[in-house]
Specification:
Layout lengths: L1 E5 L3 H14 L11 H7 L13 E8 L2 E9 L2 H7 L3 E9 L3 H17 L4 E4 L12 E4 L16 H8 L2 E12 L5 H14 L2 E4 L5 H15 L12 H11 L8 E5 L5 E9 L2 H4 L10 H8 L5 E9 L8 H15 L4 E8 L3 H9 L3 E12 L1
Parallel strand pairs: 4-5, 11-12
Antiparallel strand pairs: 1-2, 2-3, 3-4, 5-13, 6-13, 7-12, 7-13, 8-9, 9-10, 10-11
Helix pairs in contact: 6-11, 7-8
């Protein structure tokens, strides 16, 4: 007998997190998440998104076993900015049984309807970040990059059968660092001379000024027409910077500035710590942290999280320059390749710059929608 129950207790939250160890135990590409981080994701105390509107997590139980899960909620801040009534789903997982998936979708959508949502999108990030955003629909031939989505190929059949349709795709690019395209180097040099902008690494000794620069860039570079994003608040930027500081390699973060000093572009890359995290099996203690410290300097892949340019400097070589400097720095540090995920498929400017900088599209993450 299949039953769907809301997550209300600490035991149920642990079961929600633990399910993936059962589902992916035989998958060689799966990277176990950090158990403690996932528990924090389910907590309003640690996850600001859960304080922005009604939300609920559900478990599917069958024959005494947990066989599926889903989260859902409403981001009132996003809805106010976009003048809409959207709900989201997140962290969907299920055994290979459509009846389980259907029951989970039913529970989540019933919750969203009851709280006034007119449409649902997802899978969205459970923390309004870069994690678990979109369903992997193409590119199952290797482990995911840090925080990127990973799931069985047949999940997309569940979504389509239920009635979800594609809203848009987010694209992952792979960069081999064997050789930097000469065309890229020459093009960037010409662009910097013509448009008089510079590119510099982040100043770790002046973090508050850098936070203000990042805020300025994100405010001006996040298009109003993007359906799933609004510019983060200054508090959110500070919180994200604080979270990333222990993981940062300063040589992999760049800010572009106009001749008058205005911040006009930003790129943020980190080592792809999934190469280490997969060895830890979700545990920081007692040995996980020691493994992380030992292996983190052996990581040879990078992960480009963000690349933004303000509208006034589109088509002026700024994004190409950020790619160039990031690639050169990564190569100098001994990295052999890297992932850039993910780029909205309708963000044609950044998409073309990724191709022109030597990137190859290798993964596709789909955001679905359904009218309630």
């Amino acid at each position: 007998m299949l039953e769907i129950v809301p997550v209300t207790t600490a035991k149920e939250r642990r079961a929600f997190v633990d399910l993936v160890w059962q589902l992916y135990k035989d998958d060689p590409h799966w990277v176990p998440p950090l158990h403690s981080d996932m528990l924090k994701t389910l907590s309003p105390k640690h996850n600001a998104l859960l304080r922005l509107g009604p939300n609920c997590y559900f478990l599917a139980r069958q024959g005494g076993k947990i066989v599926g899960r889903i989260g859902c909620g409403i981001d009132t801040l996003l809805n106010k900015a976009k003048n809409q009534n959207l709900g989201y789903i997140t962290l969907f997982e299920s055994i290979q049984d459509y009846k389980v998936a259907e029951a989970l979708f039913d529970a989540a959508l019933d919750f969203l309807r009851a709280h006034g949502a007119a449409k649902v999108t997802g899978p969205q990030s459970p923390s309004n970040g870069d994690d678990y955003r979109g369903l992997l629909v193409d590119g199952f031939d290797g482990p995911p990059a840090l925080l990127a989505s990973y799931n069985p190929s047949w999940y997309q059949d569940f979504f389509v059968k239920y009635g979800f349709t594609k809203q848009f795709d987010r694209l992952g690019f792979w960069f081999s660092l064997d050789e930097i395209p000469e065309k890229l180097v020459r093009g960037v040099e010409l662009a910097q001379k013509r448009y008089k902008f510079t590119v510099r690494p982040v100043d770790m000794k002046n973090i508050e000024a850098e936070i203000l620069a990042i805020k300025h860039i994100t405010d001006k570079s996040t298009p109003d027409e993007w359906p799933d994003m609004i510019s983060p608040s200054l508090e959110e930027v500070r919180a994200e910077v604080k979270k990333l500081l222990p993981l940062v390699v300063p040589e992999l973060i760049y800010i572009a500035e106009a001749e008058d000093g205005e911040p006009i572009g930003l790129s943020i890359a980190l080592p792809d710590y999934n190469q280490v995290i997969r060895r830890m099996n979700g545990k920081l203690f007692p040995l996980g942290w020691a493994k992380f410290l030992y292996f983190k300097n052996k990581v040879r892949l990078a992960r480009l999280f963000a690349l933004m340019v303000i509208p006034e400097y589109h088509r002026k070589g700024v994004s190409a320059a950020l790619y160039r400097y990031s690639i050169e720095a990564a190569k100098k540090l001994g990295y052999t390749g890297g992932d850039a995920s993910s780029i909205h498929e309708f963000n044609v400017k950044i998409y073309n710059d990724a191709l022109g900088s030597g990137g190859k599209e290798y993964r596709r993450f789909r955001i679905y929608e359904l009218t309630l």
